[in-house]
Amino acid sequence: MGLSKSRLPITDTPIFVEVMINSKTLLATLFMALGFWSCSSPDEAKNKPQVLATTSIVADMAQHLCGDFADITSLMGPGVDPHLYKASHGDVELLAKADVILYNGLHLEGKMSDILHKLEKEKSVIAVASGVNSSELRRINSDADVYDPHIWFDVQLWKKGVQHVADQLGNQFPTYKGKIDSNALQYLTQMDSVHQLCSELVNTLPRERRVLITSHDAFEYFGRSYNFTVKGLQGISTLSESGLKDVTDMVNFIIDNEVKAVFVENSVPQKALRSVIDGCKSKGHDVVVGGELFSDALGAKRTPEGTYLGMLHFNVSTIVNALK
Ligand SMILES: [Zn+2]
User: Fold this and answer.
1) Cβ(306)–Cβ(297) under 8 Å?
2) CA nearest 13: which of 43, 48, 46?
């Protein structure tokens, strides 16, 4: 997918729909409903706090915590790769106007580090990852404190991020603290329900089939959480290009482990993974694309994959169905 910098203005009140995990129809309704927002009057909108999030995944968290009293804007839209994203002039204006800025952290937004650090001196700039203790993170460089930033794929870690952001927003907007706390509680409960549903789906897949191969290494926390062996063709960041050796190693790994399907991602070009599929074919092993996963960006608004919980459920269903 491309690197277009489409922005998502997200406003107003999420409609609460109770999670009923035994009904697929109702679950789909929940994911859809969480993507719809009602309208407010122009006077109300004028005085609303302005909350700016970097990625669509962080913006979705903000929407659940404070969407009923604040205007939420996401800098990055569907399919945008946060590792490569640079702030445009228009973004700099939005960042300057925002009352609060939310970002993932752990260098996910690697090319925005300078501007985020600069803004920290002027206003509240909150990293979701600050809610997670470093002992729970995946260290990716033994010589330095460099950690895997894709923490949203472990629901337990993301819940800590939600609580941290809720606490910080409560400090920033004391008038709305009670509302933020109750929104957080409601959202954390929904997260538990969807995680439970995902775990049940994964448990239908035998352990030896739980091998997840993707374009880049976004799913290590997912693998840790749901007991998958995970391999990404590119590294933790899409900044590093995969080379021929990576392709050869991956082809051999797929053949050795009799893997049936690999997965492309919505925010990463598919070309390199296609060469892996061709490499397997040339050695007599048929491997298919099991589907497109949502990794570093949500799907389009008003679709189930346009929310964090909908995206998680979609990914797990896609993976389980393709590897069965
Ligand atoms: Zn990534």
Assistant:
1) no
2) 48
Structural domains for the chain: 8-200 (3.40.50.1980), 205-323 (3.40.50.1980)
Name 226's Cβ contacts closer than 8 Å, sequence gap at least 6: 198, 199, 202, 210, 316
Tell me, what amino acid is at 287? V
Report in angstroms the alpha-carbon separations of 5 from 8, 54, 85, 253. 10, 11, 8, 36
**Non-local CB neighbours of 23 within 8 Å, separated by 6+ positions:** none
Rounded distance from Cα 235 to ligand 1 centre (Å): 9
Low-confidence stretches of the chain (pLDDT beneath 70): 1-46, 242, 244
**Amino acid of residue 200:** E
pTM of the model: 0.87
pLDDT tens sequence across 258-297: 999 999 999 888 888 999 999 999 999 999 999 999 999 9
Distance (angstroms) between ligand 1 centre and the Cα of 260 equals 24
* Angle, vertex CA 55, rays to CA 52 and CA 61, nearest 5: 70
Q: Report CA(86)–ligand 1 centroid distance (Å).
A: 15
Is the alpha carbon torsion for 166, 171, 173, 177 positive or negative?
A: positive
